[in-house]
Amino acid sequence: MSDYFDCPNCGAEVPIKAKSCPDCGSDENTGWSEDTMYDGLDLPALEESDTQSKGSMLQSKFLYYVVAILTIVAFLLFYIL
Questions:
Q1: Which residues, at least 6 apart from 25, have a Cβ–Cβ distance to it below 8 Å?
Q2: Which of 4, 7, 27, 46 is close enough to 21 for a disulfide, judged by CB 3.0 to 4.6 Å?
Q3: Considering only CA atoms, which of 40, 39, 31, 9 is closest in space to residue 22?
Q4: Which of these, 44, 40, 43, 15, lies nearest to 30 by C-alpha position?
Q5: How many other C-beta atoms lie within 10 A of the C-beta of residue 9?
């Protein structure tokens, strides 16, 4: 006996005791269809330009490290002088 069944909407494996499909979100209330409880919320679409690129994430991390080091140096200088 299998612990999974195929989602009628997208075909993904769904655990028997799952309340909804982990891939498409379909469930018994939506009739295992593409309709979900989030359809009427008018959420903005996430565009690729809204996400940070890997380069800008590295720049942010570098800036955090520089600020942390400068803070430690300033703290040490304050107590040395």
A1: 36, 38
A2: 7
A3: 9
A4: 40
A5: 19
| Amino acid occupying residue 41 | L
Residue ranges per domain, the chain? 1-36, 51-81
pTM of the model: 0.37
10 Å CB burial of residue 57 (0-12, 13-18, 19+) is exposed
Show the tokens assigned to 3: 């612990």
Question: Rounded distance, CA 9 to CA 35, Å?
Answer: 10
